Amino acid sequence: MPPVRHLLKNCAAVVSDDGSGPKVLRDVDILIEGPAITAIGQGLADGPLAEGVAVTNAEGWFVYPGLVNTHHHFFQCFVRNRAELDWTRLSVLEWLDRIYPVFSRLDEDCFYHSSVTAMAELIKHGCTTALDHQYCFPRHAGKRLIDRQFEAAELLGLRFHAGRGGNTLPKSEGSTIPDAMLETTDEFIGDCARLIDSYHEAGRFGMRRVVVAPCQPVNCYRETFVESVALARDRGVMMHTHVGEGESAVIQARHGMRTVDYCAELGFAGPDAFYAHCWELTHDELRTLARSGTGVAHCPEPVYLVGAEVTDIPAMAAFGVKLGLGCDGAASNDNSNLMHCLHSAYMLQCLVAAKRAHPVPPAADFLAYATAGGAQVLGRDDIGRLAPGMAADLFAIDTRRMDYVGTRHDPLSLIPRVGIGAPVDLTMINGRIVWRKGELVGLDEGKLFAQAEAALAASGAAPGKPL
Ligand SMILES: [Zn+2]
């Protein structure tokens, strides 16, 4: 069967990048064949290329590369908007004591339906690739939790990187994790290897990737990280963990060095590694990341709910740290909307600009962090930019609305500066339209909603049940 071909005709603006930096192309068509873009230019609809093509009228549309989410915890969608978990009234330890018993009651269905929930929200707001850091493995829930997440991604059509997380260090040795959610290093590494064998698609346009992602150095034995490095390097997959989110002093006391040096010493650093957060890193530590090519998944929105420090993005940009954006989980950010996070990322830097040693990067750079930057952080060169030969991962906004009057002269800065409240008008992933005209294509959203609510109600995490 010949590949499906699409033509987006008469796009008002396309944010394109052939590798030399983002450029806005006005009044052009985009031709898509199978999973990839084959041409961007004027008059494609009139030539022989357009024969047998499904044509979509894109008049008035701004078309962007799909957003790349580099850090999330989908399961936390089932514990959001709960007054009992109010960071402004709880210390971190009190909060952990309340939340972990809830996490430990989640079952396999919760992991599946919370993933469908988060993925649907991401897609509606222009996200086309997401990494989920799934570190919650309650013993009773079994080991098929990430398998169910791949199932959810397949259903929705999302390009999915599964960060296989886990914790090995007991509370009695200084971690914050209840015993019922611990694994041994062998269990953890064994399951990472099984998932890589079963799902990892290393080739171009791969829809499924596996990332070895022990949760945090502070909650794992040293050997867990050493074994993670050995497995990831042996199989050629990426590594991910949390760094610089308030634990550096604990790691210093335990290992005689802060987290960045500790990870580097264990080999958990380099172009095949990326860390979430990094808000407490010193400039020297940021330079270390830049030198080693280690990426950062910057999640701006925990600043609001948790009161985390605003990450020093100007310094990261000045030193050349590889940077992508993420939502983080609903325990610290109750939405799964990377479009919103992109706006926040820029606005928060403006808020504290006067306190910085380096200038805030231009608004357009924040769009690049959320797209090409995220792709680079995830170790991919086939997504994150719109150009012939790249994956057809994109979203479109019909700008012929009152919301956009006066903003249309600069598509590159529109999202960081103005923000986009409503869902986008179209999301395409790997050449397939997955969201159009307010519908998840081929799916019954009402049914998905009812199934997710039922799974939540049946679980030990249902709102109203004591924490
Ligand atoms: Zn996280």
Automatic annotation (TrEMBL):
<dbReference type="InterPro" id="IPR050287">
    <property type="entry name" value="MTA/SAH_deaminase"/>
</dbReference>
<dbReference type="InterPro" id="IPR011059">
    <property type="entry name" value="Metal-dep_hydrolase_composite"/>
</dbReference>
<dbReference type="InterPro" id="IPR006680">
    <property type="entry name" value="Amidohydro-rel"/>
</dbReference>
<keyword id="KW-0378">Hydrolase</keyword>
<dbReference type="Pfam" id="PF01979">
    <property type="entry name" value="Amidohydro_1"/>
</dbReference>
<feature type="domain" description="Amidohydrolase-related">
    <location>
        <begin position="62"/>
        <end position="434"/>
    </location>
</feature>
<comment type="similarity">
    <text>Belongs to the metallo-dependent hydrolases superfamily. ATZ/TRZ family.</text>
</comment>
<dbReference type="InterPro" id="IPR032466">
    <property type="entry name" value="Metal_Hydrolase"/>
</dbReference>
<protein>
    <submittedName>
        <fullName>Hydroxydechloroatrazine ethylaminohydrolase</fullName>
    </submittedName>
</protein>
